Amino acid sequence: MALSVGQTAPEFTALDQDGRAISLGDYRGKWVVLYFYPKDNTSGCTRQACAFRDAMEELTTAGAVVVGVSPDSVQSHRSFAGKYSLPFRLVADEDHQIAQAYGVWKEKKLYGRTSWGIERTTFIIAPDGHIAAIFPKVKVDGHVQQVLETLRALQR
């Protein structure tokens, strides 16, 4: 089921890289950049996470918090966040429940092989909990700049 702008963002509770519970509701009243990515420590996912890290000051100034979600474990997230000094929370979605709720757990074809995985997607969630913007099939390069521009436009 695909989500659309204006819908209420699906609530979730899961563990972050420190083994602490995190819920979307924890951020009510703030802009949330919720980004789904396939796998810790892969080239594209590392570039994307580091781009969010490098833009953290601008994102914070824009009143946003960043939360990353992938099917990796708490331990994998802890290692990934530590290795790249990521200043935001990474959610372990090992059972794919969050990805399914957001419609980003998809069948993928690569070199003739079919598998299931995360389709790289970013959601901007407004302070009232509604989806304000969706970036499907994200291309990593330039994405964080798009997110910042969209955030600023939404806040005007």
Write the layout of secondary structure elements.
Layout: E1 13-16, E2 21-23, E3 31-36, H1 43-54, H2 56-61, E4 64-70, H3 74-83, E5 89-92, H4 97-101, E6 105-110, E7 113-118, E8 121-125, E9 131-135, H5 143-154
Parallel strand pairs: 3-4, 4-5
Antiparallel strand pairs: 1-2, 1-5, 3-8, 6-7, 8-9
Short recap of the structure:
The protein contains 5 helices and 9 strands, in the order E-E-E-H-H-E-H-E-H-E-E-E-E-H.
Biggest β-sheet: strands ordered side by side in the sheet: 2-1-5-4-3-8-9
Net shape:
globular
CATH superfamily: Glutaredoxin
CATH fold-level topology: Glutaredoxin
Order of helices and strands: EEEHHEHEHEEEEH
Description of the molecule:
The protein has a single domain (13-154), classed as Glutaredoxin (3-Layer(aba) Sandwich). The radius of gyration is 15 Å and the shape is globular. It starts with 12 loop residues before the first strand and ends with a helix. The protein is 29% helix and 29% strand. The strands form two sheets. The protein has a seven-stranded mixed beta sheet with strand order 2-1-5-4-3-8-9. It has helices at 43-54, 56-61, 74-83, 97-101, 143-154, and strands spanning 13-16, 21-23, 31-36, 64-70, 89-92, 105-110, 113-118, 121-125, 131-135. The protein contains five helices and nine strands, in the order βββααβαβαββββα. With 156 residues, the protein is of the alpha+beta class. The relative contact order is 0.24.
